[in-house]
Structures are given as structure tokens and as C-alpha cells.
Amino acid sequence: MTFYLVRNAAGAPIWAAHKDDEMRIWVYVQNTDRFHLNQGLYRDFLFEHANSYEPITVEVVRKVICDGIGRLETRTSDRIVERFRSDPAARTVASVLNHRGILNPHTEGCTFSGSGGPERRSE
Questions:
Q1: Number of domain units in the chain
Q2: For 7-48, what is each residue's pLDDT tens digit?
Q3: How far is it, in rounded angstroms, from Cα 7 to Cα 3?
Q4: What whole-number distance in Å separates Cα of residue 102 and Cα of residue 2?
Q5: Does the pTM exceed 0.90?
Q6: Does pLDDT of 113 surpass 90?
Q7: For the chain, percent helix, then strand, then coil, each to nearest 5?
Q8: Cβ contacts of 64 within 8 Å, gap of 6 or more
Q9: Could you read off the pLDDT of 80-92 as tens digits, one per residue?
Q10: Three-class SS of residue 78?
């Protein structure tokens, strides 16, 4: 399993993603606090290359999740967000990162607001 910071053509970070052992691409969606399969990103990763994919460490995954990557605007993406919320195959952050042998992978340094994702704790 490999983790990536996905940037759009303008260079803006848009997803924390991971490629699993079956070559599927999963993206972290802040609104659900889960990783979801993303077929469009899979096609882009292998064939189209419209986005860039920077390999990152688990620590960077945790940081970008706490910083709010992957939040979808519900006013414009409401149907997509609802589809993700009802996704039975969604994976928790803990299950994705625990695959790498890391315990309590993203709760340190983040709090949860109840709005569908973590927030950075004040130091």
C-alpha cells in the first residue's frame, strides 16, 4: 500500500489517497472521515495523468487529514457526498493506516467536531 498527496493541474492539494495491494485507488473524504474507492482517480493515476501524485508518509497523511484535505462542498456536491455517506465499502482511517501496523493513526493532534471530520487541536 502506497500513500499519495494528489494535486490538481494547478498544483493545489485535493486528496490524500492510497493505492491498495489490488491497485485500487482510495481517497480520503473529510465529510465522511473515511476512505472511498475513486474510479476516476484510478483512471487518471494509470492513464490520463491530469493530476500529480506525490508519494507521502503516514505522518504526512495524518497531517493533511487534520488540515482538512478532501472536504467536499455540500452545496455543489451534495449527491456525491450522500453517495459516499452510504458507501458500504468505505474504509476507516484507522483500518487503512493500521494495515501498515500503526495504532491510533490519526486521533493524536486532531479533534472531531461532529461535522464529518477531524480538526486540528490547539496546542
A1: 1
A2: 999 999 999 999 999 999 999 999 999 999 999 999 999 999
A3: 13
A4: 14
A5: no
A6: no
A7: 30, 30, 40
A8: 5, 13, 16, 56
A9: 999 999 999 999 9
A10: helix
* C-alpha–C-alpha distance, residues 49 and 1, integer Å: 20
What's the domain range around 21? 2-120
Apex 96 CA angle, 29 and 49, nearest 5:
60
Nearest CA to 36 among 79, 76, 77, 92? 92
By DSSP bridging, strand 110-112 and strand 2-7 are unpaired
Q: State the CB neighbour count (10 A cutoff) for residue 38.
A: 19
d(C-alpha 51, C-alpha 24), whole Å: 16
Q: With the C-alpha atoms ordered 57, 62, 40, 92, is the resulting torsion angle positive or negative?
A: positive
Q: For residue 17, what is its C-alpha cell?
A: 489517497
* CA atoms of 43 and 35, how far apart (whole Å): 17
Please report which confidence band the pLDDT of residue 99 belongs to, taking 50, 70 and 90 as the band edges: low
**Rounded-to-integer distance, Cα 119 and Cα 68, Å:** 7
Number of residues that this document lists for the chain: 123
